[in-house]
Amino acid sequence: MTIRTETIAAAVAKANQTIKRHEQELNAADAKLGDGDTGGMLARVLGKMAEADLSEADPGTALTRLAKAATVATGSSLGTLFATGLLAVGRQAKGRETIEVADLAAFVASARDAMMERGGASLGDKTVLDSLDAIATALQGKTSPTEAADAAAQAAADALNTFRSRPNRIGRARMFGDQTIGIDDPGMLAVMHLAGAIAE
Fold first, then answer.
1. pLDDT 10s digits, 103-150
2. What are the extents of the domains in the chain?
3. How much is the pTM?
4. pLDDT score for 1
5. CA dist 42 to 23, 101, 102, 105, Å?
6. Which CATH architecture has domain 2-199?
7. What whole-number distance in Å separates Cα of residue 101 and Cα of residue 86?
8. What does the buried/exposed string (b/e) look like for 62-74 if buried means 16 or more CB atoms within 10 Å of the residue's CB?
9. What is the DSSP letter of 2?
10. Phi/psi of residue 145, each to 5°?
């Protein structure tokens, strides 16, 4: 089965609904480590993405439009990284009428690498990059949409659980050092909710 622009639009709509439900939870998680605005920022970003006109667009163009919408909606570093990842995938999908499920692992890895280059974080720093890395690995060899969605959701949940027992090593949270052990990174928490919602 292939992924079309309509599939992407449906996923964005689902993600938008999900973030609205978890906005305050994400803000509270971020308040322990930063400005306490992760939920609000993601709600703005996904809300603007849900308003984007994806009509008469191939998947690559649709993803690029979504990235531009995300850029307009945010002034935060996480939001900028979000847009960076979408742009990277949009470039990779450029010119395609559809995206194969089997290509998703490479697409997520492309987003991860672009975000890593833009933000300066490394794998193991306890950030959204660690979630994306786990998802990219879990998606390898998956060809069924249901199988891929379930694998991504499980990988995001497992990454959150694994890194909970580790300290944050970048951003404002790094100043708290070992005090961040036992605390969920808000970006990773958001990815878990989003991946879980899409799997549903």
1. 999 999 999 999 999 988 999 999 999 999 999 999 999 999 999 999
2. 2-199
3. 0.94
4. 67
5. 8, 26, 28, 23
6. Alpha Horseshoe (1.25)
7. 17
8. bbbbbbbbbbebb
9. E
10. -55, -45
Which of 62-76, 134-148, 170-184 is the least confident region?
170-184
Amino acid letter, residue 7: T
Which among 144, 110, 115 is positioned nearest to 129, based on CA atoms?
A: 115
Residue 34, pLDDT score: 81
CB 2 within 8 A of CB 98: yes
Which residue in this structure is represented by tokens 């659980």? Answer: 161
Length of the chain: 200
User: Comparing C-alpha atoms, which of 172, 158, 175, 191 is closest to residue 36?
Assistant: 172
Angle of helix 77-93 relative to helix 128-139, nearest 10 degrees, comes to 30
Q: pLDDT tens digit string along 184-200?
A: 999 999 999 999 999 88
Q: Taking each helix axis from N to C terminus, what angle separates 145-164 and 128-139, rounded to the nearest 10 degrees?
A: 140
- Helix, strand, or coil (residue 43): helix
DSSP 8-class letter at 83: H
Place of tokens 């193991």: 124
